[in-house]
Amino acid sequence: MLKPITVVYPVLPARDEAERAALRPIGRNRDLYHEAIHGTADIVRAADEMGVWGVAGIEHHFWSEGYEVGPSPGTLDAYWAAITRNIHVGSLGYVMSTQNPIRVAEETAIINHLARGRSFVGFARGYQSRWTNVLGQHLGARATKSPEAAVYNAQTQLAGFSTATTLVTDREDDARNRAIFEEGVEIVLKSWTEESFSHRGLNWQIPFPGDTGVEDWPLARAGVTQRLGAPGEIDERTGATRRVSVCPAPYTRPHPPVFVSGSGSPETISFCGRHGFIPTYFASIGSAGPLSEHYRRAAAAGGRDFRPGQNQCLVRWIQIGRTEEDALDRIRAYDMDIWKNFYAAMGRRTVENNDYFGSLVNSGLFVFGTVESVRRQLIEQWKVFPAEYITLINHYAQTPKEVVIETLDTFLRQVKPALDEEIHAARRVAA
Fold first, then answer.
1. Which residues of 280-291 are buried (b: 16+ CB within 10 A; e: fewer)?
2. HEC states along 15-54?
3. Distance in angstroms (rounded) separating the CA atoms of residues 143 and 149
4. How far apart are alpha carbons 3 and 310 in whole angstroms?
5. Residue 420 belongs to a domain with what CATH number?
6. E strands along 274-364, which residues?
């Protein structure tokens, strides 16, 4: 069965660019944020009642323009867990090139308990320089736009992707970012799964200092940790703390499901395959389809046998209207502002002759039209890549919550059953 996840940012709403400019910095508008953040509760409750598999927040900071005001996904996850019964809560995701991995492990383990196991965790590498460079400065991280993804997209001639020349500094920044990211994820996994552990890597010595351990822990001097703590925390000879025990362990064994966001980097997909993580493709089907098989090969090399599409997630923006033109009107009202002034302005999408609308509808990321048209488009995509999960991005609160709820309901009742059948068909073929 297909497992839908809905993502809530929120985007602080404005009638048009003129109003957004008049309210600058709209991201700090208390009244708009207050209304938007409480409106997420209505969306999440409705999604829970409908049977949506998951709801996710994001981690982004400094959004004075109001497009992605999502600085604390864990806070929202804990709140959403408290007001729902069945839906999984999570993030897409914690940007590990800027995070303290032990704090992430602790926070997500607590959320996992609060949600009684119905939570997931997402990781990302960080591509927005304004905040990644600031919050990641002590780790030496800079934002990255994967050079390998750019090369891959150029080779496959994918519509909607920029193929600008990759500089040496881009590769250096990307390699550094990836190393920080992978070390952070390694520490999170150790924190979740090991009774106690030590670590010496690029940026982290655990305990610190790594050469001697912590020599002045009073409970070790008193013998308390030796008697009551995790075995191996204290060096019996020197009395120094040589391992740490991160508490609590998650409720889910061995840990919650892990999603990793990516835009088409084969390196990220290989990383997911090695660890059994769920790759989350912010990419056209022309990119995601071949990469999904790359994932299966990487997973198989690590002893994990996945069917086509299993343990993978495709991301789509969906607008469903009574007519094709109605769906396009929804895109103009709810999606064009952020597309023009964020997605396109970031340089991640090709825009020719200032045709922002054309670049959006041809990006391969949006699916729009009548129910029949949306169903047909997604069936064709699921024939190529029968993903187990679909992440449905909406631009609430630029998109009114009533429209978000209506679209989710229509998708579940009139589109999802056809995709379930494609997944079953793929399984029959694989068997």
1. bbbbbbbbbbbb
2. CCHHHHHHCCCHHHCHHHHHHHHHHHHHHHHHHHHHCCCE
3. 15
4. 11
5. 3.20.20.30
6. 278-281, 313-320
**Residue (of 234, 306, 238, 324) closest to 269 by Cα position:** 306
- Nearest residue to 329 (alpha-carbon basis) of 412, 403, 379: 403
Residue 156 has pLDDT above 70, yes or no: no
Q: Cα(259)–Cα(276) distance, rounded to whole angstroms?
A: 10
Which run of H or of E encompasses 392?
Answer: strand 389-393
- Write the single-letter amino acid at 411: F
Residue 8 located in a structural domain:
yes
Q: Higher model confidence: residue 282 or residue 158?
A: 282
Q: Which residues of 392-418 are buried (b: 16+ CB within 10 A; e: fewer)?
A: bbbbbbbbebebbbebbeebbeebbee
Task: Report DSSP letters for 336-359, one per residue.
Answer: HHHIIIIIITTT-B--STT-HHHH
pLDDT of res. 428: 86
Rounded to an integer, what distance in angstroms lies between the CA atom of residue 390 and that of residue 377? 14
Would 215 be classed as within a structural domain? no
What is the rounded distance in angstroms from the CA atom of residue 346 to the CA atom of residue 2? 32
**Ordered DSSP codes for 159-181:** TTB--PPPPHHHHHHHHHHHHHH
- The structure tokens listed for 6 are 């809905």
| Contacts for 355 with CB less than 8 Å, ≥ 6 apart | none
DSSP 183-242: HHHHHHHHHHH-SSB-EE-SS-EESSSTTT-BS--HHHHTTHHHHHS-TTSB-TTT--B-
In a domain, 339, yes or no: no
Q: Is the pTM of this model over 0.85?
A: yes
CB 50 within 8 A of CB 408: yes
102 neighbors 240 (Cβ within 8 angstroms): no
Average pLDDT over residues 142-169: 57
How would you classify residue 382: left for phi > 0, otherwise alpha for psi between -120 and 50, otherwise beta?
alpha
For residue 108, is it within any domain? yes
Give per-residue pLDDT as tens, 23-61.
999 999 999 999 999 999 999 999 999 999 999 999 999
Structure tokens at 16: 């048009």
Question: 278 lies in which domain range?
Answer: 3-154+254-327+367-430
Yes or no: say if 153 and 163 are a contact pair by the CB < 8 Å rule.
yes
| Packed helices 101-114 and 168-193: angle between N→C axes, nearest 10 degrees | 50
Task: Return d(Cα 194, Cα 187) in angstroms, integer.
Answer: 10
Count of domains in the chain? 1
Question: 266-275 and 147-155 are packed helices; what angle lies between their axes, rounded to 10 degrees?
Answer: 110
